[in-house]
């Protein structure tokens, strides 16, 4: 390293011990693209209370949870609730990135992407993410 180069600090995100299945790489990029498209069509529920309320009312879709939520108790009950209701879920590495994809300034710990209608703009992306997640 020369005198002109600045040392680069790499920060690693905290990953919760319960974060399984964790999306990474290409699958994470597709999931963020899906969230952005769903946010533009207002087919998104954000936050633990709003997501659980939507599930209770029978809305179907896919849940994305942030893996870097601390304390874990905030979202620890959501995966069990999803399995009980037959809703697919996965973890994404960053809650800040999840909040940005939702087109909000705040971080988001849980997001429900509502299952698209046949003519929706994000139907193809939704099916791709579900297919890749199930592999």
From TrEMBL:
Record has Nucleus as a keyword: yes
Cell compartments where the protein resides: Nucleus, Nucleolus
A Gene Ontology cellular-component term: box H/ACA snoRNP complex
Spans traversing the lipid bilayer: none
PROSITE patterns for the chain: RIBOSOMAL_L7AE
Main localisation: nucleus
Function: Required for ribosome biogenesis. Part of a complex which catalyzes pseudouridylation of rRNA. This involves the isomerization of uridine such that the ribose is subsequently attached to C5, instead of the normal N1. Pseudouridine ('psi') residues may serve to stabilize the conformation of rRNAs. Common component of the spliceosome and rRNA processing machinery.
Protein name according to UniProt: H/ACA ribonucleoprotein complex subunit 2
Species this chain originates from: Perkinsus marinus (strain ATCC 50983 / TXsc)
